[in-house]
Structures are given as structure tokens and as C-alpha cells.
Queue: 2 jobs
Job 1
Amino acid sequence: MFFRKSIIALTGLFLCIFLIVHLSANSILVLPEETARSLYNSYSTTLRESPLIKIVAYVLYLSIILHVVYALLITINNRKAKAKGYRVNQYKENSSWTSQNMGLLGISILLFIVVHLANFWARIKLGMGEGVGLDANGHVDVYEVTYSLFQNGYYVVFYTLLMVPLGLHLHHGLKSAFMTLGFYHKRGLRTIAKVSLVYAIIMAVGFGVIPSIVFLK
Amino acid sequence: MKVIFKIWRQENAASKGNFESYEVDGLTKDMSFLEALDHLNELLVSINKRVIAYEYDCREGICGQCGVFINGRAHGPHDHMTTCQLHMRSFEDGDTIVVEPWRASAFPIIKDLVVDRSALDNIIEKGGYISAKTGTAPEANAILVGKELADKAMDAAACIGCGACVATCKNSSASLFTAAKINHLNSLPQGKQEASKRVLEMTRQMELEGFGSCTFTGACEVECPEGISILNIAEMNARRTKAKWLG
Amino acid sequence: MLDSKIPEGSLENKWRNYQIKAQLINPANKKKLNIIVVGSGLAGAGAAATLAELGYDVKCFCYQDSARRAHSVAAQGGINAAKNYQHDGDSVWRMFHDTLKGGDFRSREANVYRLAELSAPLIDHYVQQGVPFAREYGGVLVNRSFGGVQVQRTFYARGQTGQQLLLAAYSQLYKMKRAKKVEMFPRHELLDLVVIEGRAKGIIVRDLITGKLKRFAADAVVLATGGYSRVFRLSTLAIGCNGSAIWKAHKRGAYFAAPSFTQIHPTALPQTSEAQSKLTLMSESLRNDGRIWVPKKKGDDRKANTIPEGERDYYLERRYPSFGNLAPRDIASRAAKERIDAGYGVGRLKNAVYLDFKHAIERFGMETIKDRYGNLFKMYKKITGVDAYNEPMQISPAAHFSMGGLWVDYELMTTIPGLYAIGECNFSDHGANRLGANSLLQASIDGYFVLPNTINNYLAHALKEDHPTTEHPEFERVENEVKEHINKLLSVQGNKTVDHFHRELGKVMWQECAMSRNAEGLEKAIAQIKGIINAFWNEVNVTGGHKEMNTELEKALRLADFLEMGLLMCTDALEREESCGAHFREEFQTSEGEALRNDDTYSYVSAWEYNGGSFNLHKEDLTFENVQPTVRSYK
């Protein structure tokens, strides 16, 4: 159990770092059309070609899988530990809703990831669905894929709304990962709790508003 | 004062159990919650019914024997309080009070509101002690323990073993209970000799007893009558990692 | 007739001489010997763990769901030891003298000296077991003062000293359980003792989950079942505390010593209603810094904080200037009762006095007071809803400790060979009044240090005898008696609850056999209790069966014994025509209302033998070779 919990925490922290990189890339999308297209496409080409990034990508896939699988295993075990619940349970008086529903939030995020991968990863890397053209610099036009996706209002709403569970999940996940890994310095943890909140807001808002900006372009 | 008790009745471990409602009149705000249940039991005897089984002993919040889920909270609506310290002044006339036993697979129900918490004793048995035979101790002041350290050990040692942490935890984790004992003993110089063995064996036993894992909801530290901090769990995790990898 | 087996030699050498002469048993043989320990408090758990460490096979029983709940857990203030860490003139001798004097010279010199002598190593022992006693910043142990004493010799762990000591003892018990030398039987209650050919050889217990009666045989039986002050119903004790084990032992032949010596604690929370089940104790240590007072005007209804200094009567400081608020418990309780009875009581029912921290907070600062008593103030707030940092606490006397108990000799053996009584359930060290912070001490010393050194003397003989088995016809006979007793209770099927009769008994005992007693009242009480016993057996209703968990049946079984014990307590109080310690007979007092002891006639320990429905008195004369009994003065 401790091993599994540590893996969830470590992979979670890794994914948190990944999100920072991801968001900084996404922020290119808010730049004026032409700059955004060339920057974004050359950036994504660089990512695909760099051998180091390739390794990191596999670590990323593995992290997501481990995070999900171990969370699932732990949840099953925890459910077994509480075979019967209470008729009345006022848990909101002693803990946050988020902390009590990390599994539900996680599943929403997983759902999001599946759709997100189908939209981008499957199309660009696996070549599934409609083909992707090249831009003026000869780079794969990932920008176009993004731009066209967010012309669809439903996707914009979906991508925006699903950032709410992401933010909540990150808020509890980040600070509790530190405690799972054995960080118990009182004042340090108070700082981490604040950082978690700020981080979660930046991530949720950041990822959440970009589709709308693209939509309105 | 009149209230309606909705109480879990279950004849024994094997039977199914269900809620029963009892309208109880003649209570006063000064009564403790358990005294109100005593009163209900006397009423049940007067109509030749079996009494409700519930636990208590010291009735001053230190023995840890009492403990039921009251209106959706372990030990009732207040933070840091035992069931025996809860008074009827915390309820309104006419309230419905739902009373359930601790729910955790590691705490099987014995009867009505009484559960078996021997799993906690089993964790203690695996290292919640310092191996020092009677008659072998050095002079008490020979090993100094600074005030801060003694206070910190005492904060953790204050655990009364009621099981509210397990009861309130959505995963029925006994992490707070186990961590409190480990940190109490491992932080003192007297407990250092067996520190690694203690943390590894006690946490292993905790898992074997069928308690869930800690996901840091923080509910336990709020319901803990002694207000033992959840940081203890983080500290236990650190101690465990250290013991596992560094010995 | 009563041989207390006091060893030879000077006071300082008695315990040493005893140990030199006591028999030993070699480790290989210890394995073959079984010992039953009933009770898992400081005495029981300490004894069980230590006996197991020595190699005996131990079975330990408790009625609670875990050994960690035993009522030692509730002791708050501390534990005394003659370490003289504070450099304030303490010594074993002084501690011995304080305890003997505190007990109003109604205990054995040799026992009390041993208690003081072993107190210092006991602190070493608990520190080594991980008890987080209070410390100075530099790391050494801190002491505080306690009632009845002018030195600081009390060690403490916040207001939870009993809990911390008990958890240490409990952890050692489980250490030995892991080593498979102790077998634990929680949720098992002793219902009778089995005596074969005059020797204690086993017990009959009831499994409180299944209701099944079980037999256990052993080479020796140790009772560590605590005090019996629940006879008053309202007391500071846990609800489950009972006198059944010692009462059953008494009926099987063990003499009961000084049953009427029960201590009324001065600082409990006052009763607020008829339905109340328990009087919560506020540690006596509060009297270190708190000042006790009542208004000078009768029936003064003003709020405490609005009563000016000049109109407050700090009656303990007034009556006992040298000890003041730290006067011993019996004296403090009686003084409170005197004020309350005279109409100066405060609180809704006018049954309380104030305990005020205003001056202490002014003098030491809020932080220091919080550090010393924080959890007690928190507890007070939880129970009463009042913040005692801002207004004085209301306190009231409540039944607390029973000095009386099974008569034991220097080896802690009762008058039944092979039956030992340790801790609060015996009468040994406290005389007619126990000093604060001596209870944890006595229980621990009995369990850890004394019994494991004395039981060999008896068991060395047991080795040569046949080991008892539960097949013996005596087990059958006793079990049948227990069954009959239970069936009789269940078949009354009257119309009153067990609690009803307990309340009745409690009222009589509190009225006539508590803080002050008189012949007329005690005679009346005896008649009343007989009436209650009669009514109990004709009108009680115990619902549910015996082959299940039945809390009502548990209560009824305990009460049946309390009722009979109440009779003996009154009989004893009536017989002792003097005032000593907690036993205050109104007929025997000085013109100033202080206790008037009569050493010429009553310098003995009463030891009662059960004789069908009546009791025969035996006397163990107390001789004082080292200390001249004086009039106890705390002025």
C-alpha cells in the first residue's frame, strides 16, 4: 500500500511538472495568428524529433498508466476496507469535498485525457482520421488541428468545463503527494498548501480559457 | 426535551440489522448523550424490550471505549470530542438523531452499536512498546529529553484509541492511530533502538488488519478527541521510507 | 490469627531482608506454572507483563474491550516518587512519613515504607518504557506539588498521567502477548472464584460477547480489579468499575479490610441532574494554582467575577494556613461539605464551591497555566460549556478512591492462600486516606515490583502439588452456582430497572456512609439497604437473555454485589467509633470540627470475614515502631 501510494504521489508530481510545460506551450496559442502558427508548429516538431523528449514522452505515458492503475487498485482496496457506509454522513463538516472525491475527479480527468488524445495524439502521431497538412515552414500543422477543433463550440465547452475537476484534483493532489512522500514540516506544508492552491488555479484557468480565446480568434 | 432516536439495531455479527426509531421524552439539556441513551434503555426495560447495546466506560473522554456515529459525524457534531462528552444541549427539541455504529471492515459489529476494535490492539502488539524488562531501567534523568521533544511525543501519545479516525475515514484507514504510536515512541531516545523495526512491523500489521490507505482527507484530525495532527501520518511515512531504504 | 508476615529488621531493611529470604523458582519450572490476572490496569497489566517476563504462563482478563481502557487511564494529576530532584528536602523517609500521616496512621509502617522506597526506581522504569513525562527545557524531569505534602515529588504527563502510565503498562502486556507468554481475554468478566482445598485455583468468567460461562484453572489467582466506589453510583469511577471480583473472593473466604475507608475527592464537577451517571473528576493538581472559595454571604446569587475580594471566603486558606488549598483530600472535601451544608454553596443546585485561577493567571501568565492545565480546562469546557480561564470553575466533592479492599499481608496475599490482591482492590498502603498521586504509585509498585517478588514464595509450593484442572468437581459446583445466580436474576421479571435500585443504594450510601457518618444514620442505612436488597430480588427487571451480549445483565450482576457490599461498609463504619482520615464520625470530633482519632481502641485494621449473611470482625493491630502517631494537623 505504501509503495503504491508513493508511486501515485511520484507520478502525480511528475504530471504536475508536465502540466507546467504543457501550459507554457499552449500559451503560444493566444498570440496573433501567424506568430502562433509558426511558433506552435515548430515547437511541436522539436518535441517530436528530440530523442530526449521521446524518452520523457514514454515516462509520461507510463506515469499516467501507473497513476491510474495504482489509484484504481488502492481505491478497490479502500472500498473493501469500508464495505458498508453510513446512512447519514456529514463529511463536509470535517473535510473538503475534493479530498473525499479524488477518484471521481480522477475519472473525469481520465475521460478528458482519452478525448484529448483522440483529438490530437491519435491524429498527429498515429495518423488516424483526417490527415494533417504542413505549414509554410514545412512543419506538421498542429496549430491548424487545434484551431479547427476549437471552432466547434461543444469542444470548447468540454475542454473548458473539464478543467474544473483538473483544478480540484491538483489542489488536493499536490499537497497530499508531499505528505504521502513523508514531508511533514509544519510551516513548509502550510506553504505547500498555498502553492497547491495557486498552482491549481493557474492550471485550471490557464488551460480553461485558451480554447475560448482560440474560438474567438 | 423530546427527540427521536433513529438507532442501528443488529442482534449479532451474523444478522442483518436495521434502523429503529424511538421517540424519547423527558430529556434535559444537561444530560449527556449517553445518559439520554441510558434513559431510553430504562424505558425499553419498562416495556420488557431488549436494551440497546452501546459502549462506554469512563465517561470523561479518556478511556476511548465509547464511540458511535451521530448524525453523520464520529462522536457527534463537535470537533475533538468523545461521545461521552457530548451533551443534549447540542441538540434541539424535536430533533431526529441518527445513531450508527463505527463502520469499517476491520471493526466488525458485535451487537447494535458495539464493534470489535481489537485490530487496533493487534497493531500495538507488533511494536507499540519499548522492549525494556521490568527492573532494567537506567536512572530517569540519565537520558535527557528536551521539553519540545517531550511535548511532541506527548501530543502523539495522547491518542485514546477510540477508533474515530478509522470510523470517519472514507477508506477506514488506521493511519492516524498507527502514526501517533509510532511517532510517540520513535521520537523518544528510549524508543530509538527499535525504531525501524517498529515502523515497518506496525504499518505492515495495519495493512494486514484490513484498514484502507490514507488519502489525506483530514477528517481524522478533526474528529480525533485529542486533536492529533494529520502531520503525524506524513511523519510516519517519512519514518517508514527511511526504515525501508536506510534501515 | 491474622499474620501480616512483616519481615524482620529495621524499617529500611525489611524489603531487602524479605527478598534475601524469599524462595526462588528456576526458569525451567516457571514455565510450568500458570497465573491468572484479573484486571488490566496499572496493577494488573504491570503484574501480568512482569510475571510473563519472568517466565510464568499468564492469562489476563478484563471486562473492557481492550486492556488499554482500564480505569487507571483516568488518573490525571501524577505519580509520586521520592527522587528529591527538586532539592527540596525530600527523601524516602519523608515520603513514607507523609503517606503514613496522610492515611491517619491506619496503615502498616512496613508496607508504606516499601511503597516510598520503590517509588524512585518506578519512575526510572516508566521513563524507559517511553512515558513522556513533563520535562524542563534542559531535558530533566519536572515535578509539581500535590495535596498533603510540602515538597514537590509528583511526576506528571500533562493532565493525562494515568493514561500515559497505563499505555506503557498495556504496551508491555502486548509485548508479552506477542511473545506468547500472556494470553489476553478482553470482554470477560469474573463471576466467581474457585477455591480447592483452601487454595485459590481458578475462576469462572462470563464471555460478555456470547454470554458463555468459561472455567480457567491456575496455580495462583491475582485480583487487580480496582476500586468499588461505584457503590455510591455517582462517583468519579468508570461506569463499569465494580466490586464483584473482590466481593466474590470475600464470600469464598478472603477477608475484607476497612471497607468503609472510601475517599471523597474534593474537586469533581457537581451533580446537575437526577439522570446523571458520572461525576467527572478535575485533577487535584488544579489546587496547586487554583484557589478555593465561597461567598461570605449565604445564598449569594451574584456572578462569581462580580463578587469583590473582600466578600470571598477562601475557607481552606483560612482554616489551614500552612497547607491552604493543598490540604489533604478528606479535609478539603469535608471543608467543602461544611460550607455547602451551611448554605454557602454556589451553582444552580447550590452544591458547589469555586476553584479560581484568576490569581494564578495574573501571577504566572496565561501561557504557563495553559501549559500546566490546558487539557483540564478544555475538558471543563466540553462538559459544562464554561471557559474557566474567564470565570472560576465550580467543583464539588465526589466519591473517588477506596482505600479499603481485600485484606493482604506483606506479600499481597489475601487470607485465601494463592489468591493475591494488588492495586486499589486491596487494603495495604493508604490507611484511612490516600494522598494524591499515590494511587498510580501503589498500583504500579504492587504490579511491577512487589508481587513478582512475593508470588514465588507461594508458587514454590505449588510446584510440588498437582496442577489444577477445570475438570475438578469444584469448578462444576461453582459454575452451577453462577448459573443459578444468573437465572435467578433473569427470572425475577419485576417492573423496575437495575439503575433504579442503584440510584436508591447510591442515595443511602452518599447520605449516611460518605463524608460524615453517625451511628444512627448508619443503622438506618443498614436497614434501608436490606430493604433495597429485598426489593431488588423481587422487583428488578432484566430483559434479554444470558446467552448474548446483555449490558443490563452485566449491570444487574454488579449491583447485586454492590448491595451486599454496602451493608458491610456501613457495618464497618458503625463499628469504628472514632474519626480517622476519610472516616469521619460526627460523634467523634474536636470542638473545632476536626477528626478525633482514638488510637487506644482503634489502632487496628478491621478485617471482615463473610459468614453467611453476617460478618465477623478480625483485627490486625497496628504497631508503630518508627513513627509516633500524632494528631494530623494541616493548620
Note: The two ends of chain B are 60 Å apart (CA to CA).
Job 2
Amino acid sequence: MSSPILTLVAQRIALGLLLLLAVSVLIFAGTQILPGDVAQSILGQSATPASLANLREELGLNDPAYIRYFRWLGGVVTGDLGTALSSRQDIATSIGGRLWNTLFLAFWAAVVSVPLAIILGLLAVRYRNGFVDKLISGLALASTSLPEFFIGYLLVYFFAVKMQWFPGISTVYDGMPFGERMAAIALPATALTLVVLAHMMRMTRAAILNVMQSAYVETAELKGLSAFDVIRKHAFPNAIAPIINVVMLNLAFLIVGVVVVEVIFVYPGMGQYLVDHVSKRDVPVVQAVGLIFAAVYIGLNIIADIAAIIANPRLRHPK
Amino acid sequence: MAKAGTKEKPEILLDIRNLRIEARVFPPGEAPRDITIVDDVSLTLKRGKVLGLIGESGAGKSTIGLSSMGYGRGGCRITGGEVILNGRDVLKGGKQGFRKLRGREVCYVAQSAAAAFNPAHRLMDQVVEAALLHGVASRAEAEKRAIALFKKLSLPDPQNIGKRFPHQVSGGQLQRVMTAMALCSEPDMIVFDEPTTALDVTTQIDVLAAIKDAIRDTGVAALYITHDLAVVAQVADEIMVLRHGKLVEWGGTRQIIKEPRQDYTRALVSVHQIEHQEKKPGTKPFLSVKNVTATYGGGVVKVLKNVTVDIFPGQTLAVVGESGSGKSTLARAITGLLPPMEGSITFSGRKLANRLADRTKEDLRQLQMIYQMADVAMNPRQTVGTIIGRPLEFYFGMRGKERDRRVTELLEKIEMGKGFIDRYPAELSGGQKQRVCIARALAAKPTLIICDEVTSALDPLVAHGILNLLLDLQQEEGVAYLFITHDLATVKSIADSIAVMYRGEVVRYGAKSEVLRPPFDAYTDLLLSSVPEMEIGWLEKAIKGRRMESAGN
């Protein structure tokens, strides 16, 4: 690996870290702007001025905001996300299992949706403007246009209630056998797949169509390659950068944007956890989850950037 | 090799009969209609022979060449006639039939190999792809053959050049790799589509010689498509002249260039030299470039080294050199687009600000530019009237009737007339577009117009017209030109003084008659001797007489 790539990659990572720091400031500032503070939330109705003052002293809430920010940040960096107000439990511990559940669901949704979207995109280009293209585009568009909760309920209605193939509530627990776990996530994973499929498929189609006008595609056609081979071997590798970008955005959505789907299927993931604690006004939990979501988003986008850099032969093999 | 022995191969390899090709066009503001690109053209090509197809752009040369592979570019459809290759009508073979012959019986070499190679794959993978696809050879055999071809085409480091990516190899080398790619599957015929047109004149000669040797040694037949009669005369056995999709004349190479029978062929053979009397340099130049050094990348790459030239009022300084020699950079330094690192530019006795942003509107008005690609230098959504009227508004504050009158005047100056005022660039021919760009530059009443390869993208006859127009305008308006070009024939027609540039330096500078009078320095000699002459056997003579290698760009 040569130096220009390393420099670019290092730049991207440094930028990502900087961005994450900025986001942490925003999250902290945002929760500061909300009326009331943690002491008030903890004591609730039973607050007296004296007990409030005591608790504020105890929690260090009288320190200036920037000191509290750095105390919080220091905790986050060392893995201490604080204590949930509602349950008095350590946030890092409760998030651990749920994050894993969310990643598990996102992983399987991605394993199905990414290859499927790319293959459908290739097929759409191969039969562009024909029946197959229109069918693929139409179905994909329809599945994106339907709100995810509606898709969720449709799936539950048909596959859980009518046909009873899969459970309608995706309960998972520690030590659950792999097969049962897969059956439990089948419906939410399908719902997620349908939501992200169209975006990736259409981007793949557009990115490849963009390079189909190139002279090297003509060269490939004039070698006698079949239409699909021309697309797969000669057009696709040159369209990879925008495709990676949109794939990563959708992967981020699979982790960060699953809130609604998790709630519908009562799946014990990050989204559910977040919704629960927002309704309880549990600020430390919201801060922690927000920061994790931001980290996932930024991390995946860094990976997309780096992958796009590496996919460029001009950067990979300088003159 | 694969088919040898199975069937007696006919002596006539390709027999095109009454070919007719149509395409649907979408003119702006009109209903789509079909136009005829190729009209009733017949030709035959014997095994191992080279037929040159020649004509201006739009003559249907490439379309005919590609029809031998059953390929229609951009919506072209073969609507009539027969294309008989190796004894069968390929048009009846359908898609499967086309795929079997493409890359196997007929291969294609494109004008710009730099664009025709896939940037994502290594050269070797692309070179052997067709041979593997059609089962002509195993990978090991095909690679061995490719390396032998690289050697034959005198590519540097033939063992390893296949491991490179297209962007790691120069344009002239890529063109040779593409020829090797076409030869690798041992086809019966190759379609060369302007294979040297995009190259520097000094590189063109190398590639041309390599292609000629490869054709001779492998015994492959070829359709050689070009607009340059002097080039095709070096490689073709026969030449076919085409115009507007119709056959004009077809004959042996010697007959076409020595005894053309048709007026159009005669015009093609005779053009280009304009007798231009060199003007005596005035006493005082109005623009002086003194010891200018300019760099890209913050001083990393020196593209201009200590350049000094003068331009006199109403005269033309031609800057000649191959790509990468710094010609266009000199223009960028003068216009302030690339502020020089050292040196100065004096205009009418005062120093011009280095940076474009620091110059006054009056300075900007005095220096105008015309570019090589007229179509990308104009806003496609503006009419000719708006395009030419813009500098009138901007520099002189002209409005309404006054402006329209001046636009009409300018249109007459460029020999186009009032009727064009409401047309869009897409409705103009290449030559007309360049004329509109000239009118736009002229509208500012500049002292100097910088012409950056303004005739390079045009057909010879059209370019001839543009040069004549520029000379006439110089007489009438007294405007000076800085004329950047790689084409020495153009230089002879228009220049009063010449600066020859090589790797960022001016290697020869003076009045035209001095610069073009021997003895020459090695580079000027290479440049002059590389310009193809319409003479059979010129190529061999030129290669033999060379004193230095070309840079290979």
C-alpha cells in the first residue's frame, strides 16, 4: 500500500473523530437546553429546594457546563456511560446486550438486502427500459413508499396471524438457539430489507447507467462479451464508489433507524431502549444512545469513504 | 487458428453491398426524425489488405467500419444492404452471431485508447480477454502472445507492461497496447478508427510505424479510418473517399493522392497551405512576457521555465510544441489564471497584475480567448445572440437595439449573417460554433486574442476556412494573436513569429522565416520531420532520418 492512500485514509479517520467530538458537544448542549435538570427528574414531585440543592451538590451539577461535559466525555471514553435515572442501572451494561441484538438484526437484514439490491440493480441495467427493469423499479419503489410500520403490520398479518410461519413478536433471550433466534427475527429483518432495498437498487442502477456510455464499455461490447458480462465486469467496477456510499448509508440506517420496526415487533434492541427512555425523560440514557448512534453513522461513512478510495485504481496504483 | 482447415477461406474477406444506415436524431425544438448516415455504400476488402476510409466528420466512416461488426453506435440502425464477412451475411446472424464474430474475426482499435481501456482492470487482463472469451487460446498462451505483440509494437518493458493499469501508461503507448489487444485473438480483420488522431505529431509517427509493421507481419486485413489523407497514404493499399455518407471515389492509394478524379478528392489532396507573408516585427511589442516561471502544486511541478516572448501589435505569435510542453500554461499565465511564480508580464508599457482577480475590467477586455472545444466553451442554453451580446453588455454597457445591431455586424464579420442570431449552439456545425466563439472574443475589441488549438478539432477544409477568417480579421481589426498549436502546417499559414516549446522551455524563438530555416535544433527538427506528408513511403524515410526520440505522450 502506498503513501497517498495511507494519507487519505488517515485524513478521513481524523476528520471522523473530530466530527464525533463535535456531535458529542451538540448532544450534551442539547440536553442542557431542556428545561429542568437531572436532579429535578430524579426527585420528581417530591422535590424540596433543600433536597434539590443536596442532590445537585452530590451529582456535581453546580459545576460549570464545560466541566460537566468533560467529566461526561471522560466517562464515555473510559467506557462509563453513566447510570440510568429510571432504573438506577449502569447504562453500559444494559446497552451491551441490546446493541448486540440490534447488530444481529441489522447484520442479517444487510446480508439479504445488499447483494439482492446490487443484483437487482445489475438486472435492471441489463434489461433497461424493458419490462424487467420497470417491474424491479416499480416494486422497489412501492416497498420504499410504504411506511415501515405498515410493512411491519402487513408482514405480521400475513405471516404471523394468517399463515403462522413466524412469531409476530420477536422475543429473544440469552442462550436462545440460533435457529429459533433466526425465526424470531425473520419478520423484522424482512421489513428492514424491504425498506432499504429500493434505495440501494436504484443507486446501483443509476451509477452503472452513468458509466454505460463510456468508451470502454463499447470496447467490451466489441470484444463480443454478453450484455450481462459487460455490465458485471466492465461497468460495475467503475460504478462501485457511489454504490458503496449508498450501501453504507443504508447499513447505518439498519442500525440507527430501526426504532419503529423494533417497537412493532417488540424486539429488545437499541431502538426500543431509546424510545422507552425518551418517554421516561431519562437524559443520561438518551445521551449515551445518541452518541453510539452518531458513532455508528460516522464510522460507517468513514468506511464508505475509505472503500471508495481503495476502489480507485489511480489512488491504489499511482504512476 | 481455430477455424483454419475446417473450411476454405474465401479470398474476399469483407464484402459490403449497398449498405444503408439510418439514425434517429432529436433536433432541439423539433420532432425526432430519421436521417441517413450511410447511403448505398459498397466495398470489398481482400484478405490481408488495408483499405483506408477517409472523409470529414459526419462522412459515415466510423459507422461503416463498425457495421462490419454489426455494431451501431448511439442508435444507428443498419436498414439495408448486406455485410458479407468470410462468406456469410453477418446481418442475418442476430445478436448471438454478432457476439461470435466481435473480438474473434473482427477487432476494433478506437481513437482514444485512453478512454477505451477500462480504468479498473490491468492491461493484460483486457488484452487477453477476447482471446479467452472466444476460446482462441489458454490464458498462458494468450499472455505469451500478448507479450510477443508488445515487443513487436516496441513497447517498453514488454514482459511487465501488462501488469500496469491504463492510467500508468502514456497515450501513445496505450494506443499500441490497444493494437496488441486487437491482434491478440488473431482476427481476420481490424477496424482502426482514427488510431493516431488524438496523439502528438511526434508520437503519431511511432504509433503509425508500429501499426504498419504489425499489419505487415501478421497479415491481418484492416479498415483504416481517418480524416488525414497523408496518414492513410502511409498504410493503405486502397483508399475510399466518403462524403455525407456517400461514396465519392475509390481507388489505389497512388491514384487517389496523385491523380484524384473527383473535385472533392482534389480539394482534400491540395489543401492547407495558405501563403502568408510574414510581417516585419514592429519596434515596440505591446505585450512582453519576461522570464516567467510558473508551477502547479505550489511549486512542485515546474511547467514553465524562464519563458520570454514578445507580441507585436496586429501580429501573430505561434507557440508550437507537443502536449505537456507548457503551451496552454503560457496562455494561463498571460491571462492570470495561473499567476506566475517568477517573472513579469508587461502590457502597453505597464506591468499586469499577476492574479486574474487583481486585474481591471479594462485589462480583461484587452485579452480574450478562443478554445479548442467550441461546444463546451458556450452555454448550450443561450442563443448565439446572447452569447455574442454578453461581452457587449459587460464591457460597453450596450443594450437593446444598439447591441443587436453590433451582434449582427459581428455575425457578418464571421461570414454567418443575421439568420443565426436566434439559434442555439447545438444547431450549429463545428466550424460555425468556432466562428461564434471568434465573434464573442472580437466583441470585446481586444488587442490580443489567445487562440488555444482552435482548429485542432475541426476537419481540414473547415479549419482552412477558420484560418482564413482569422487572417482577414487581423487585417481589418488589427488584432494580435497568440496562436497555440501542435500543427506545423497551421503555423506556416498564420504566424509572423514562432516560439517552439519543449518541456516548459522555449527552445527556439524568432521570426517565422528564421525559425523554419535550417539548421534546426534537434527538437524542432523532430517536430518538422514528424508532420505527415502526402507521399507514399514518407513514413519510412522520416523514421530513418530522425535525430531524437519523441517524448511518447
Note: Chain B has a mean pLDDT of 87.
